[in-house]
Write a structure and sequence with these properties.
The protein is α+β, with helices and mostly antiparallel strands. About 25% of the residues lie in helices and about 10% in strands.
């Protein structure tokens, strides 16, 4: 007979995916399982520190979140942003703003920070381009390169 001890949750977890972890432990994770994960720094669900800055004043919001290695950086950032929203932050396509600087519509270009001028009707003017947080001037300056590695604030 084999009398090996039962594996601990951390040993069972190993390098499991989030789907495997959820299937094994259920969702959300219990405090006991979280405690086990925190005691194992090699665990793929070990908390990651994520810091987000207010786009207006530079105020930092830093927290530790349980994310997995399968998540993209955008998905990891969304984990932090969803928590920040519960703390009064505005996190959306217009940017990340602390409770003091929340806004419903951008008043300046997210790239060049120039105030929008709705009266400027030029194709490359300072009016807001469609529903984006960018001015027509910045959008016009993006040449939409055919380079596979072209990533700018407008194109991403």
């Amino acid at each position: 007979m084999d009398t090996q001890p039962n594996p601990t949750p951390a040993q069972e977890l190993g390098h499991a995916s989030v789907a495997d972890t959820t299937a094994a432990y259920g969702s959300p994770l219990t405090p006991e399982i979280v405690s086990t994960i925190l005691r194992d720094p090699d665990n793929p669900l070990y908390p990651s520190r994520i810091c987000v800055y207010c786009d207006d004043c530079g105020t930092q919001f830093t927290g530790e979140y349980m994310v997995s290695e399968e998540q993209t950086s955008t998905e990891r950032l969304e984990v932090a942003r969803s928590h920040m929203r519960t703390q009064g932050w505005q996190c959306n396509e217009f940017g990340d703003y602390c409770p003091e600087h929340k806004r419903t519509e951008p008043t300046a270009c997210a790239k060049c920070r120039t105030a929008f001028d709705p009266a400027d009707g030029r194709f490359d003017g300072r009016a807001r381009y469609a529903g984006t947080p960018y001015c027509r001037h910045c959008v016009d300056r993006c040449y939409e390169s055919t380079d596979a590695f072209h990533v700018c604030v407008i194109c991403r």
